[in-house]
Design a protein that fits this description.
This protein has about 550 residues and is of the alpha/beta class. The protein contains 18 helices and twelve strands. The strands form two sheets. Strands 1-2-4-3-5-6 form a six-stranded mixed sheet, with helices on both faces. Strands 9-8-7-12-10-11 form a six-stranded mixed sheet. Strand 1 and strand 2 form a beta hairpin. Helix 5 packs antiparallel against helix 6 and helix 10 packs across helix 18. The termini are far apart. About 0% of the residues have low confidence.
Amino acid sequence: MKKLINAPVDVVPEMLRGFALANPALVLLGDGVAARADAGELKAAGQVALISGGGAGHEPAHAGYVGRGMLTAAVAGDVFSSPSADAVLTAIRAVGGPAGVLLIVKNYTGDRLNFGLAAEIARGEGIPVEVVVVADDAALADSDENAGRRGLAGTVLVHKIAGAAAEAGQSLDDVARLARAAAGSVATMGVALTGCTVPTAGKPGLDLGPDEIEWGLGIHGEPGVERGQIPTADEIVDRLLGRLSADLELAEGDRVVLLVNNLGGTPAMELGIIAHRAVDHLAARGIVLERLWVGTFLTALEMAGCSLSVARVGDQALALLDSPTQTAAWPAAHLGRLSSNPETRPVPSEPGELKPAVDESLWRSVTVVCNALIAVEQQLTDLDQLVGDGDLGISLARGAQAVLAAKPDYDGTDHASTLRGIAATIRRTVGGTSGPLYAALVLRTATALTAGRSWPEAFEQGVGAVAELGGAALGDRTMLDALIPAAAALRTGVLADAVVAARNGTDRTADIQARRGRSSYLGDRALGTVDPGAEAVVIWLDALATEKAPEAIS
């Protein structure tokens, strides 16, 4: 792996600080949050705030679109991993006022869960929040056989339209309506010539031969819908625009805009060739091309390739796309002044108080679980690279280390109070899909314990929370294939029974075609490998059973 980095864990904060040095209109709020320096004034003036984000690795998205006429704040998670719900909540609290906040979310499970959970918490605090999900991937049809159409580079056009509406003083309802209309009118499809390498993984997630091309890929280096021999640039454009036109049901006379996007490693020369053919193709079909942008808008690290985004527009959308914008990345304006000392604002911490010490019996079990996850970090990472994005082991180990370090901060009044503190640590430190799901598991378990339920009953209710939040079920090839059988077996009070049930359920996932999560995009290619999330459940349950033997759980 050749990258201009220091330590992989420092990539995101060092990157954001570098961006802020070059953009005096940007401030950093911690937890990967970049915001407009004048966000406080906008809040006081009653302007709707726009927040977007996701995993890092897509630069200039999303911090590059923070500025006048686009985003108020952007939240960056680890590379290709959703930011935590707490990071999103930090952004909402910082820029959201009575006028409300619009969250623009790409249709990936981790992003939906973390942004959705943050929105729920913020609404409970009295901040009006609307969520718009962008699913512009024309390569995938909505289906129960996968996690749905992904959010791709067309999201940037949604940022632009919604941002212009917010800047003009429109209400939250109106801004959200325009954003949803924009999201529904855009379609994107891309091709990759090479894979890309996540810094923590150290090797490409997509291995393409010298004459191969991947059609319809996502933006996390995952495989697309088809692999084949590379054709000419004109043939690539014709196929992509043919698919996009069919997806949007374009007809002669329709007005559109076109975004030609560099996925990271494509020379400007090649983008120009793509744009040249795209203009000719649309003209030959009688489609009216109103605007054309060519450049680097939303990438997949150093991946060579491009995507095309077509959006049907009318006079209102076109006026919003043409409105003045001052951001680092949108072509209408470039900010080049150097700021020698970008302002970094500390994130307010939750008020602390002296709390009773955590019960040592409970903490021994927590320690065993955390140590087990830390010990298998590489094992789970390697497994997840086969069928996912390779971040599971890293994410769970990070969360386990954070939980162990936070022991002095937890409330030991009772087991439920401690679990609530652990859930807060998990949602703050574990990004992607795992963070909110494990946080929900622990939170619901705590609630059930408070209601007087036994540990087996409480755990079963916690598993139910995972199913509700994630929208998955037994047989979907997720962590639930281990959790649900384990919870049923635990009714005996014997942890060993739960481990056996979880192991059997996990082994069965090797023969299941995934319908949720990133494995759902691999189809048959995921068969033969167990689900990494389910495997993680077996590992920590087994460690807990070994520590507890021969005790019964009641």
